[in-house]
């Protein structure tokens, strides 16, 4: 089938590359000329394992190309994915201006009836708004609406986005016409044939809600275990064992029960906030999600409290921070919890020595001389009064207690991502605060 993807950011590019991989002819469109230029040269402008290879294969075989020309992108397409950004407004509600512009683009340039698919995360009832926009555009030209509107949310995680998209645990398609459902079935048929997964066919509104409900639930799971972590620290119980044992219950499940520095990234913080707004606009106060947010803010403050407890004044100290990406295997720092930790330290006048294997270029100009960017974890830790883990990059696990003890000026470790075994650190004479465990020191 002929597929167009409007917006080739993280979600759009993964969608385009995987659609090409399963056999469709794909054209990606973006208004950002430099991004399109970079893609034309075969370069993925962000870090996502496996995507570069998929893009190169698609470009070499001619099954994927990119353009800044809307007419070129939308001539003769069966399906158009809208993958544009939905940035948060000042009040936390999502800004849907780009979604509306994408709909207008389809209406102006599509040369035949097509299925318009919302892939961007949007509030429930956005499908109706898109339909309304398409109808008005058509009426202004004296025509009637010929396009279908579909919601097909993505559930990909950064760092495993290609795998999540090629081998999804479910495909959700919301459409209000049998014809649109039929087109979407055909679109996903090669994937369903190769990989057996539930195909949830529903109406547009339900599909839209599935996405926000899923992300809000996962964020709530994380906040729940972070609240339990505080109880574990106060009692000397072990949150890891609590989570493991809870996870054996099939009704609960182990995943997303990792206590730590709280959730960040471009999705959970924005989507939880948006869902609270959407609910409120519909007359429902989603207090549970406001509490999820409060616990997440508290989780991000946890390292500062531990540093104060162990070091007393922190403004005159040097602190090593390991990791700034919002999670490992990505260079994305959007809403990364580490940023809150570093901001708080910088506000105190603390000297920060920061290492991250891939994300440092994104913070190069952020704090000026207050934060020293280091090429290795060792360089960050040597001479620091304490080390704080903010992202659980696998390479940090390889650092031994003896190395930490030797490099640190004061023997103080704040392990906000449970990278190391606290007992082993304590045995080396280090004072340890490890999230959700007895505080040793
Ligand atoms: C998230 C969802 O997991 C995807 O299903 C969804 O498609 C995506 O948002 C989206 O809406 O586009 P992502 O933001 O890439 O994916 O990252 P996650 O792996 O979900 O992690 C989010 C944050 O939660 C990270 O900061 C991570 O460190 C934190 N987290 C995750 C925890 O603190 N504990 C956990 O147990 C799991």
Note the beta-strand portion. Answer: 5-15%
- From the helix content, strand content and strand pairing, which structural class follows? alpha/beta
Low-confidence stretches: none
Task: Name the bound molecules.
Answer: uridine-5'-diphosphate-glucuronic acid
The major beta sheet can be summarized as:
8 strands, mixed
- What is the name of the CATH class of the largest domain? Alpha Beta
Count of discrete structural domains:
2
Major sheet strand order: 3-2-1-4-5-6-7-8
Give the averaged pLDDT, no decimals. 95
End-to-end Cα distance: 62 Å
Fraction of helical residues: 40-55%
For the secondary structure, the number of strands is 14
The number of helical elements comes to 17
CATH architecture of the largest domain: 3-Layer(aba) Sandwich
Fourth CATH level, the homologous superfamily of the largest domain: NAD(P)-binding Rossmann-like Domain
What's the gyration radius in Å?
A: 24 Å
Based on Cα principal axes, name the global outline: elongated
Protein model, in words:
The protein is an alpha/beta fold. The chain folds into two domains: 2-202, Rossmann fold, CATH 3.40.50.720; 216-434, NAD(P)-binding Rossmann-like Domain (Rossmann fold, 3-Layer(aba) Sandwich), CATH 3.40.50.720. The protein is built from 17 helices and 14 strands. The protein has helices at 10-21, 33-40, 51-61, 70-74, 97-109, 126-140, 161-166, 178-194, 204-235, 239-247, 268-281, 287-311, 337-348, 377-381, 394-397, 401-407, 422-427; strands spanning 2-6, 25-29, 64-67, 79-82, 115-118, 148-151, 171-175, 199-202, 318-322, 351-355, 371-373, 386-389, 412-415, 431-434. It has an eight-stranded mixed β-sheet, with helices on both faces. The protein has a six-stranded parallel β-sheet with strand order 11-10-9-12-13-14. Helix 5 (97-109) links the parallel strand 4 and strand 5. Helix 1 (10-21) packs across helix 3. The longest helix has 32 residues, at 204-235. The model has no long low-confidence stretch (mean pLDDT 95).
């Amino acid at each position: 089938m002929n597929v167009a993807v409007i917006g080739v950011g993280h979600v759009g590019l993964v969608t385009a590359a995987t659609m090409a991989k399963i056999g469709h002819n794909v054209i990606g469109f973006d208004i950002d000329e430099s991004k399109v230029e970079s893609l034309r040269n075969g370069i993925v402008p962000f870090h996502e394992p496996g995507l570069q290879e998929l893009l190169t294969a698609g470009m070499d075989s001619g099954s994927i190309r990119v353009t800044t020309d809307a007419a070129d992108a939308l001539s003769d397409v069966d399906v158009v994915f809208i993958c544009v950004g939905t940035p948060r407004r000042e009040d936390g509600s999502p800004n849907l201006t780009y979604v509306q512009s994408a709909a207008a683009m389809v209406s102006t340039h599509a040369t035949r009836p097509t299925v318009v698919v919302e892939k961007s995360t949007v509030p429930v009832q956005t499908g109706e708004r898109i339909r309304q926009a398409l109808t008005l555009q058509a009426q202004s030209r004296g025509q009637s609406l010929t396009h279908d509107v579909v919601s097909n949310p993505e559930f990909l995680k950064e760092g495993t986005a290609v795998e999540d998209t090629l081998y999804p645990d479910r495909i959700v398609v919301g459409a209000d016409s049998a014809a649109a459902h039929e087109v979407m079935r055909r679109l996903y048929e090669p994937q369903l044939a190769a990989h057996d997964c539930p195909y949830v066919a529903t109406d547009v509104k339900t599909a839209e809600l599935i996405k926000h409900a899923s992300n809000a639930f996962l964020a709530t799971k994380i906040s729940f275990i972070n609240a339990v972590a505080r109880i574990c620290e106060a009692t000397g119980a072990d949150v890891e064992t609590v989570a493991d044992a809870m996870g054996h219950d099939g009704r609960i499940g182990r995943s997303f029960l990792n206590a730590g520095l709280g959730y960040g990234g471009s999705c959970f913080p924005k989507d939880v906030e948006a869902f609270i707004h959407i609910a409120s606009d519909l007359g429902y106060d989603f207090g549970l999600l406001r509490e999820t947010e409060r616990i997440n803010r508290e989780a991000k403050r946890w390292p500062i409290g531990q540093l104060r407890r162990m070091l007393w004044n922190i403004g005159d100290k040097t602190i090593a921070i390991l990791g700034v990406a919002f999670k490992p295997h990505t260079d994305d720092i959007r809403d990364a919890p580490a940023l809150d930790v570093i901001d708080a330290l910088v506000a105190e006048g603390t000297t920060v020595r920061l290492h991250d294997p891939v994300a440092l270029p994104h913070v190069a100009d952020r704090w000026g001389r207050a934060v020293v960017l280091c090429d290795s974890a060792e360089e960050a830790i040597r001479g620091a009064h304490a080390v704080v883990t903010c992202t659980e990059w696998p390479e940090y696990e390889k650092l031994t207690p003896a190395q930490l003890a030797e490099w640190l000026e004061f023997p103080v470790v704040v392990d906000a991502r449970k990278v190391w075994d606290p007992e082993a650190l304590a045995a080396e004479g280090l004072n340890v605060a490890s999230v959700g465990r007895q505080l040793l020191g």
